[in-house]
Fold each of these.
Amino acid sequence: MGLEIWIASMITEELESYLEAHRDEAFLLLHHYLNLGRLFLLHSDLQDEMESFCDQQPRSTLPGSELATVIRASQEAIANAPWLYFAVRPGVAHWYYLRFHVEQRVVEEIPVAEFLAFKERQVDGNDGGWTLEIDLQPFNREFPRMQQARSIGRGVEFLNRHLSGRMFQSLQEGDRRLLGFLRVHQHQGQQLMLNQRISSVKVLRQALRRAEEYLAEQPQEASWTQVEGVLQPIGFEPGWGRTIARMRDTMQLLADILEAPDPVTLERFLGRIPMIFRLAILSPHGYFGQANVLGLPDTGGQVVYILDQVRALEKEMRQRIFEQGLDIEPCILVVTRLIPEARGTTCDQRLEPIVGTEHSSILRVPFRSATGEVVRHWISRFEVWPYLESFAAEASRELVAELGGRPDLIVGNYSDGNLVASLLANELKVTQCNIAHALEKTKYLYSDLYWRENEEQYHFAAQFTADLIAMNAADFIITSTYQEIAGRKDGVGQYESYQSFTLPGLYRVVNGIDVFEPKFNIISPGADSEVYFPYTETGRRLGVLHEELEQLVFGSPDESSRGELAERDKPLLFTMARLDHIKNITGLVEWYGQSESLRDAANLLVIAGHVQTEHSSDREEQEQIARMHELMDRYQLDGQLRWLGVHLDKSMAGELYRFIADRRGAFVQPALFEAFGLTVIEAMASGLPVFATLYGGPLEIIEDNVSGFHIDPNHGEQVARQLAAFFKRCRHEPDYWEDISRSAIARVENHYTWELYAERLMTLSRIYGFWRYVTDPERTETRRYLEMFYGLQFRTLAEKIPR
Ligand code: UDP
Ligand code: LCN
């Protein structure tokens, strides 16, 4: 049979002519894939097989060919003779799909739905019957969308350009909407910014002129009360500025926008609008508390992130309110789950003030059984789904009562918090911001495809449904890194993985999320600089802890530790993380165990989980504990590895990083995948050279060989060599350790601070609040679609999970 090729515009003509000219060679490779006898081939399988195939054929034309380019860009393939289907990603967040009929030597481009349907057929034998397709793309037709991969994650810049450009051009539409927006702000009955006397944009312009003339004559340091008698009758209300100078400046910004809007002025003006006084932050799962919680199941960086975030946001909110001349105390409530069996934590208390804030607290609301009784025990984050609807309803009542009104912004965290935030934001009509922290979908291979097999332990179908609802409902989304949204040239982003996927037998997503939407913004978290500061700042060091640290690190085994370091002079290679499979602590122990040179060069200090299985209530953690013991026995590590099954409080952890830096040690973060990695920036801020996984956040945090090192957890032997070589070099060249240490400190100081974070988030909240105001009526369709998806899919899935 001749070679028939139908190639769509995205596939280059070169592929066509290559296949025409080298059909035997090309199809031999494709046959080779089929002959492997594997249904699903990952990106790495495709590359490795192609390389070995080419090695065996030295004169092959394949390596430089268009076919090789397509295969290199393929994220996955499905092989079921005579068919080979490829999902090709030629660039960040761009996809197309191809199928080859290897016998008939035909290639064609196919729609994503067909690719997914073929995939489904491999796992559930679906013979082409009707399947629910989820497609959010039609709803976004009217909305502005970015085009370039490098714009992804800078949504607010794009939105500002769009708002100040197109919107203001259309028949004064922008002016009118801005006026409407400026009249809606109130705080507890007090009107802010403008009152009803400003009835049109024309009146607003006149009022601004009159105000400017009047204010120019007044003492510039005077405050609102001194000018209110004149400004209020012409339409102004408090909120323009603390001093007359600031009021004039704010009015000038508005006058400039009305004259000729530009993105910078618009951002500056919107950033000043007093509209965020009360904030709700949702984080239901895990143990959310201020002490003794880190390291408990499902309890890690998210808690640290939120507590630091609250302190920074409250400060920023207070500062902005003050600058706008208002006497209002900001208040933030973190809404989490109340757990009566609190394991020595405060998770059984309803309200807990947050240390370092003036008016912010943790508000705890219980999970309830189907009959309404309070659930007393901890529940895994994979099993919270059936509780969330009643949790949201109760949280809403409590929040409004506690705040004395609805919040001005709702921030969700992780899949469960984001879903609850969507329910609340929808009910209370408030701007919604999502923070994923870590989307589970990309962490577990084929978690979507084999969702049924994983159902008993993970309930991924409910979680991914919740994710889709929440990410589409959110007004804006914050991520800690770029690759969290859109990955890298050769790796799929976490959000991008929701663009299309399938849960066979349930539904098929053809357009789940568009990472080119301007709702995505990268704002990285910081490391608390009060706690994580350089080891060189001796005046701030917590010397009183050193005896305790000595004991921790060099002590003898007891019920919460194993191993005793025989050679104390060696530098310490340190790691600290929850003992989850994905953190790969056991992987690190194995690399260490197998590498004589690394064992010679450094001791290993591990702080993770519990040493005794019976102290853990988490299934995955229990498995990891058993594996740790097994590896320590197998490689006889008790004299070189010290494993502490303890949870350090923040100040202790901070001083421990520095204690290890004093001894010229290093920190290692060996995770198979790490969404961001707070320990990485904490260790760096303390001055420890860090070796961290290149899968996830650390890839962006660390500049390889400058402010730390990337490691590939899939090549443990190589990691062990890298580490051994580092310690060896530092022995001969002490300046080397110091260079890396200094660069690590500088990197964190310049890029990862909570001050930067709070400033950005508060500006963004206002801009997206405005955007929501101007686009609200147009979003009804999406909201209705999501409500239906929630009601018909999510609830059904959640109800099936034991409660
Ligand atoms: N942590 C701690 N003591 C412990 C274990 C962890 O203070 O015993 C802190 C650690 O310092 C970091 C957080 O818990 O701030 C873990 O966050 P990361 O982002 O590294 O990982 P996650 O647990 O969120 O996946
Ligand atoms: C969850 C994770 O898994 C980490 O990678 C992040 O650093 C943490 O949340 C804070 O966002």
Amino acid sequence: MIDFKEVISEKLGNNIDVLKSDEIKALIEVPPNKEMGDYAFPCFKLAKEYRKSPMAIAEEISKSIPTGEVISKVINVGGYVNFFVNKEALAKKVITQVLSEKKDYGKSNIGEGKNVLIDFSSPNIAKPFHIGHIRTTVIGNALHKIYASQGYNTVRINHLGDYGTQFGKLIVAYKLWGNKEVVESSPIKELLKLYVKFHDEAEKKPEMEDEARAWFTKLENGDEEATELWSWFREESLKEFQRVYDLLDIQFDSYAGESFYSDKMQSVIDELKEKNLLVESEGTMIVDLSDENLPPALIQKTDGSTLYLTRDLAAGFYRKKTYDFEKCLYVVGSQQELHFRQYFAVIKKMGYDWYKDMVHVPFGMVALEEGTMSTRKGRVVFLEDVLNQAIEKTREIIIEKNPEAGDIDKIAREVGVGAVVFQELSNSRIKDYTFSWERTLSFEGETGPYVQYTHARCCAVLRKANQVVTPEVNFDLISDEDSSEVLKVIETFNKSILLAMSKNEPHIVTRFALDLAQAFNKFYHNNPIVVEDDGVRNARLALVEATRQSLENALAILGINAPEKM
Ligand code: ARG
């Protein structure tokens, strides 16, 4: 297989003695427009070393590089050395590789033997699984697929919020106003009502907060009634979460949530004491982080009860011991930035350098058009409703446009859910955005259904041709501009995945899928595929199959199915 960048950096290396070959390779870019070439090497870095202008250096280098089988032309443009690759060699490389590797195209085993933990989704028990959770859930799942595709052993952890003072509140509310049958008929909606009512009432009667704290302490001490209620809330909530995970086809390797660490915090607290890191402050126990420029980390409240942070600390040690992770990612909203900085800083102060392997992967907030979402005020959009509406709408469109598509329920599910997931993965994580029903349910433009439709279009062409597609074709016949554009995108697949992995940004793979769909649709509109001429037909079909396979693989990495008909 030819790696164009490799070939180019080797040729450049023969002319540049001040950079190592991997440094050269890392500098190679793709020029903004294709008339300028397929790859470009900037000479600005060299200008200092050689005490010459970048233009002069580019001119010199471009003249001394011989062209040949892979590189067909070398020119210099404003301080860049630009390379034109042989389009036939490109076609041969891409087609041969995709058609032989199939579902493995894009994969590697660079992560073999290394554990990557992904803490994601992690909803709070007895609270709705709302649209705000979709980001952590689908970004986390995509990161799992991205790492797994490169051979890492991933561990998907759902760090359920199943512990903490809010359970005291819920117990108080349930004992005052709750009804077993009503809760069982619609657990989360009912528990949410109780939670909201608690906050309304507690505003008038602040002593209710004390009562709630007392119930949580009871729970921490293993009180029977408290434990029974708590575990019932937990079970009923999990049943609801499971329905959403089933819709999204998302699985976890561990559901060890906050409560799992209730008996694992003491040893961390003891170690903090031993290391003289735990200090008393107004009755609470804290770790001073002023030398890290952070506010103190609160470890224990006045009444001795523990906090979210205490449980994360215990989880960190448990995970390090259990999985000896290479990396532990926390896919959690940007509002928790400070929490994670404090958490990692405490581990650092304790003298462990694996704090460096823990990464907070933040994402922006989802707001509603009517304002910020608020669980306490009951202003939420349920994720399950969003997914179900997307499926419904898709079903209507398919029945109208393509009633013969086959298993309409299955397709509606794959496309409807795919639309929601793809939208979530379309932007860089950190951007806040406002949830809009209209945009989520619109299938026009740069959407998941558009990519899925392009995949189905490839399938339709292949069905129509009804012949065996092989990589033994005349590559010269797909070295024209439209074909080369498609092939050039396909060629970047593995690099896109690696980049997405290094930045923990699945949207880079989303972008790949959109670029490929666009390039392919252009090719499709300009070139008839199932033509009389055997040579042309075979070559173009090979290109269609390479596109189809690459789209399928890219969608799979995003956690989206690729139906053959829609
Ligand atoms: N349950 C938390 C929330 O909904 C997220 C937990 C994230 N994971 C963690 N280890 N802190 O905000």
Amino acid sequence: MKLLVVGGGGREHAIIRSLKKNPQVEIIYALPGNGGIAADATCVPIGATEIDKIAAFAVENAIDYAVAAPDDPLVLGCVDALTEKGIPCFGPRANAAIIEGSKVFSKNLMHKYGIPTAEYAVFDQMDAALSYLDTAPIPTVVKADGLALGKGVIIAETREAAKTAVRDMMEAGVFGKSGSRVVIEEFLTGPEVSVLAFTDGKVVKPMVSSMDHKRSGDNDTGLNTGGMGTVAPNPYYTPEIADRCMKEIFLPTIAAMNAEGRTFQGCLYFGLMLTPNGPKVIEYNCRFGDPETQVVLPLLESDLLTIMQSCTNGTLAETEVRFAHKHACCVILASRGYPQSYQKGFPITMTEEAARHTYVAGAKLENGQLLTSGGRVTGTTAIAGSLEEAIREAYRISDGVRFENAYRRSDIGQRALQALK
Ligand code: AMP
Ligand code: GLY
């Protein structure tokens, strides 16, 4: 089989490695992929949002099955475009990807169908948002409606900070059109859990839970990033909570999307907060998380390609989705300065062991040499029988990945370890 994967980060590298385990796979094209992915797939310089070019490439190369991994191509209709050309593609159509593409849509959906989430108000006029903030409970959370590279959420500790966030989004336009509408919502507290789930629009099969580490610094200090590391499973996500999430959140969400005529097929990502009043949805993503995928897929024992195809053709109920009862930890190496400004172009070296355990997120190949080209550069994953050992191994193996100005958090998994004790 000839496969195509749209995207070019660590998540896509993990997806490609997992797909390659199926002996029927002859070739995988990555559009655009990256310098590290080139070791596992054939990279083609077509951008992830160049939907027409992606569809044309898929037709010319007689692709049997495609996977659209990042949010923007999904929201732009990549799955629709490929499907129209007769190429089956994993992921939601644009009318369902809106569950991530518009926070106003997802909040209204949860409200309408009684799915637990933070209380909220929506504004498309700045003056109304500012006067609402005169009396809103503090801290409060200001969110840009549209996609904003994971940066469109501001937790405001004061009224002034909340108003500044609203002005930045609605007046200065720091997130462009994405900020022309905002959601202002109740500040929730509790441990966060990421649950990725396969769905064919009829049944939902959650993957092993995970925990992201979004802040740039140790002990959850510093700026929000795309994620500096992950562990799976998440110890806060007990079987009782999982049951409750299935009944109160996962099944109602699938049913709500169907009722709206927006059947969701693909990977639905539930960003949950386990509040004192029960589990609530912080956000939906219409795709695999990054770097959650780098700990979840290595634990998958069933065949990823078969599962993905079953999501597309509606046979997920009969398809096995089984995970190893082990622990995984992924440690990200970033360019010093990320998520703000950083230098690029440094040579990357890896020991043979590190290369086997490492997914490449931001690197390019130049004359056969791998060079850093992004904020998050690599993610190194280890699997072990205990969380403690998985963490120790992930750090030990990631010592084998070297480049100038490399930066990593030193406490990935520590909070999870405390929770286990
Ligand atoms: P998001 O981009 O929606 O994942 O939000 C980024 C982060 O902001 C989340 O992972 C949470 O830690 C935090 N966050 C978002 N919404 C809330 C909320 N209503 N209450 C508390 N924290 C929140
Ligand atoms: N790691 C969070 C995300 O993929 O959105």
Amino acid sequence: MFGRILIANRGEIALRIIRAARELGVETVCVYSLADADAPWLELADQTVCIGKGPSADSYLRIDRIISAAEMTDAEAIHPGYGFLAENAHFAEVCRDCHIEFIGPSPEAMSRLGDKINCKKLARAAGTPVFPGTDGEIEELEEAVEIASEIGYPVIVKATAGGGGKGMRIAHNVAALRTAVTAAQQEAIASFGNGAVYLEKFLDHARHVEVQVLGDKHGNAVHLYNRDCTSQRRHQKLIEEGPAPGISPEIRDRVCESAAELIRKAEYSGAATVEFLMNEKQEFFMLEVNTRVQVEHPVSEMITGVDIVKESIRVASGDPLSWTQDQITLRGHAIECRINAEDPSKNFMPQPGTIETWQLPGGPGVRLETHVRTGYRIPPNYDSMIGKLIVHGRDRNEAIARMRSALSEMKVAPIATTIPLHQRLLNHHAFVSHDFDINWVERLLEE
Ligand code: MV4
């Protein structure tokens, strides 16, 4: 095991990684920006190193400064958390060149799955269900037109380097498709420096279901079942829950095992998430693979008892996975609500400022992941998430009741948060009967 690791992140995930490291007897070094100089999580780190000014480009994205901080403090490994440099294969490569372990996949495995066309090819070979569409990049416009007429409209054109909805175009007919391909290619070059686009069948009214997986450096991979992350707004997830409701155990196990097989085929180590869309007939189609620990990982931890962050540090140090698939069993149901410092009544306007009231929920099955305390000043530079409220219950109904109760205990002032929106969603009949799709939150907000 490592003696000391560096955490190249901030906020609740930095705190989560500190806790995991401490349990493993591993010392931590936290890098921080001037905007986070008095941040609470830094008090729990064994060492801290300032790496620059508030803007991420001057601090949390500065590979040179992060590597220097690791070398200065003799950190043997770097945990990137999520966001920032977590899915930057160049960063993972620089770490390797500097003989620092990147706590995550090799740069090769990250690139293999990060490129969506390549990922889809690997998925097909692994038996992971994918959308029908072009086998690879669209080389000739006429080839896309031909495939579209075979699979039927609507179709979607996506950039291989894209993500989070960027560079996507939906086409309902051949004329729209011709425009969409050219536009998507140009947008892909401008945004990602890679103009490769591919085509697939467009699925409307879908649910977003993802599979949590873990791989090690010895060719092993396990899945931790799935999560439903359908409740989103503008590609920002609001509520995640697991296991995903409304899926038969047979289909669930088959899809989860195919996700683990994809990770094995990619020789991937660390935590990853294989994202799918699911239709009303419980048919699954892979979207992409996230090659990092995700915000919503606690949902999977609560329903399986696996500590994903500890496990990711263990496998990076070369240990084999400490769990076999048959030791991982489902227990109950978990729901996570992301608490953002945003005002839902003002178009989710970010709310920087000082938190004067911070009253927390508790009780059985209630977990709060947050770096915030009373008097904490939210800097304007970063993501607005100030905490994650996760509840666990013996079934979905108990988890919903616990979440409602926990949300009502929580008091945050004077800044506005997403708590009232969560209360509205958790009380909505569509949520209770899990009868909703990826557009339901935005539709509800328009009412
Ligand atoms: C799709 C799709 C429908 N059909 N692909 C959006 C982000 C990117 N990760 C993939 N996305 C989508 N891909 C096909 N073939 C619909 C979306 C999509 C979406 C997916 C998941 C969660 C929310 C979404 C919101 C709008 C569109």
